[in-house]
Amino acid sequence: MPPVVSVYKQDGSYNFTNPYEYAYFAIGDHASNPVYDLEESVAENVNNYLLSNVWASIHIGDLTLKATVGLNSERLTQNYFSGAYTSLGLATQGIGGTGNRQTDIWQQEYTAFYSKDLNANNYLDALVGYTRQTSTSTYSNLRTNHFTNEALKQYNLGDGAGTYTPQTGISESTLNSLIARINYTLLDRYNATATFRADNSSRFSKDHRWGYFPSLGLSWNVDKEPFFASFASNSLSYLKLRLSAGLVGNQEISDYAFTTSYATGSYSGSSSYTKQNTANDRLKWETTASYNAGFDLGLLRNRLNIVFDAYYKKTSDLLLVVPIGFASGVTTQLQNVGNVVNKGVELSINAAVLAASPSRNAAVPAASPTWTVSANVAYNKNEITDMGITNDVIQGSEKQQILRRGEPLGSFYGLQFEGIVQQGEDVTKLPTVNGQAPQPGDPKFADTNNDGKIDGNDRIILGSTQPKLTYGISTHFAYRGFDISASFSGSYGNKVYNALQRRLEETGDSYNVLTTVHDSWTPANGSQSLPLASKARPFSYIDTRYVQSASYLKLRNLTLGYTFRKSPLSIISFPLSITAIRLYATASNLFAITPYKGYDPEVSSGTDSGVYPASRTFTFGISLTL
Fold first, then answer.
1. What letter does residue 21 receive in the DSSP assignment?
2. What three-state secondary structure class fits 352?
């Protein structure tokens, strides 16, 4: 709503007249009012959630039998209502509805656990069991429109003259698992852990429901070897070497994705069915084989601890939605497509920079300060190593991402932006766009295939959502009664498609735009970033201007506190014996350092269409120790 249009009339009522609104939010001489939208619309979620768990165990010598039954139950009700003068309700003289979803997840576990010190040098424990998880979700949804009385909003849906087709449904799934684990320790320094699980999931067709996932882990406590003492000193106090390999599975897909399904509706008063999914009886488990080698190291009497890991992970039979020919009645299908490899290293360091000498009185803080610092960094390379029998797969609402062999998951696919055509520039030397030579003020893109024209074949990889490095730093300092702690985290090398900026820099509509549009190209202002302001956009493809660096450093948490100990509290008369009172203040998400131009570089999908950033919060509290 333009700022020159008043939100309210002189009598204090809402103003629904806006001469600048010509299309989406106006019908006749009535226009929607954004403040009215916020104040009078209803978007309500009522969620009742129950987490429950009951277990019983029996000990028979070294054997423990245990049975566990749990229920996670959710009851969700969603109410919404938009009146006749709201943005959503203009076209239908108001719209309202209510929806309900009930989800029950039952979890059963039956295990037998055996542990035994076989002798002074051998220890063994073993576990076998059976687990079963059943999930049932039902839903219903009712909508109506054309209200004559809006006073009761969603509590008077019977007033609506137009009713949409009611929607109801049910979804069920089961996961049955057989599990086993053996731990063995020899001489308190050689350790082995072997696990095995067999999972049967109803989310796959009957011939592919079983998945088998073994693993083996080995470790060596070197510091407990007799020879370690001969060269160990105060500088080297602990050393453990580790090796592991294993297989895990992924079944996190929708129920019934392997079979043909239809959506119900109505047409001209009769029932109708629309095909939603076509059967894929070859759909099976996505599996990841992992191999890991690492060590744990303690130095300076364990004041400095280092953990290092190197890993290789290969994910096979990726569960991805890919385009298919429309001959089957749908355009996409969930398939097992190709392999992805992740390989990298992880390093974490924990250091007690300052260690306090013990106090004789536990109620009085140590006189010397303490300071600990922890840091971690991880490097990962992600690469698609096989696409199976399919070619490149282009994904996203704007076809902005591509799956291609040799590239990482989440790779962006678009044009290379090369500036704006300037006055006097020889346009005959530039590639054509839609068969025509570009004109001053038009954007320029790289002709990557050198065919003299700009089209979809000139798109290239523009980066990916995969960071090259992720890292974190945390620290805690305490002296006498004061303490302060902070934690930072960040990433480097990943990209985000800033779809919101791209939309708000388009000048083909009457609504708000970014202030950067002031710098659009004109003959007097030879901008090299934004073209001549107009309604035309030469391509729907994304380009390098809007695939932006998402590297960042964030201060996640900062806490400051002071603790009053027992001595000064002795003057306070209180019925309970209080040994300490701590006052503290915590701030979260104080700042982020990033070149990204949008709200928040942490966008899980890799595309930022205007997702709200993390909120900055401040918490003040008091804790009592009795």
1. -
2. strand
> Can you give the pLDDT at residue 573?
56
Q: Please answer whether residues 208 and 282 qualify as being in contact, where contact means their C-beta atoms are separated by less than 8 angstroms.
A: yes
Q: Which two tokens stand for residue 88?
A: 């959503």
Which residues contact residue 39 at a Cβ distance below 8 angstroms, ignoring those fewer than 6 apart? none
Cα–Cα dist 88/84, whole Å: 8
What sign does the dihedral 503-505-511-515 (CA atoms) show? Answer: positive
For tokens 């003299």, what's the residue?
452
Three-class secondary structure of residue 432 per DSSP: strand
- Rounded-to-integer distance, Cα 77 and Cα 93, Å: 24
Arithmetic mean of pLDDT over the chain: 91
The answer to whether 451 and 457 are in contact (CB under 8 A) is yes
Q: Which residues have a Cβ under 8 Å from the Cβ of 38 and sit 6 or more positions away?
A: none
| Strand bridging mode 453-454 / 432-433 | parallel
DSSP 468-499: SEEEEEEEEEEETTEEEEEEEEEEES-EEEEH
What is the greatest pairwise CA distance in the chain? 93
DSSP string, 540-600: SS-BTTTEEE--EEEEEEEEEEEEE-HHHHTTS--SS---EEEEEEEEEEEEEE-S--SS-
Amino acid identity of 307?
V
Note the pLDDT of residue 567. 52
Q: Is the pLDDT of residue 572 over 70?
A: no
pLDDT in tens, 235-269: 788 899 999 999 999 999 999 999 999 988 777 76
The secondary structure of residue 421, as a DSSP letter, is P
Phi, psi at residue 155, to the nearest 5°? -90, 10
Average pLDDT score over residue span 459-463:
97
Phi, psi (deg, nearest 5) at residue 447: -85, 80
411 - beta bridge partners?
Answer: 402, 464
Instruction: Please choose, from the candidates 200, 241, 246, the residue with its C-alpha nearest in 3D space to the C-alpha of residue 224.
Output: 241
Q: Residues 105-137: pLDDT tens digits?
A: 999 999 999 999 988 899 999 999 999 999 999
**Long-range CB pairs of 358-365, under 8 A, 24+ apart, other chains included:** 363/565, 363/566, 363/567, 363/579, 363/580, 364/565, 364/566, 364/567, 365/478, 365/480, 365/481, 365/563, 365/565
CA distance linking residue 102 with residue 569, whole number of Å: 51
Give the torsion through C-alpha atoms of 446, 450, 453, 458, to 10 deg. Answer: -50
Q: What is the DSSP letter of 266?
A: E
What is the chain's length? 626
- Specify whether the CB–CB gap between 551 and 494 falls below 8 A: yes
pLDDT at 574: 55
Residue with the two structure tokens 């998945």: 211
Provide the pLDDT for residue 362.
Answer: 45
pLDDT for the residue numbered 534: 82
Cβ proximity of 513 and 405 under 8 Å: no
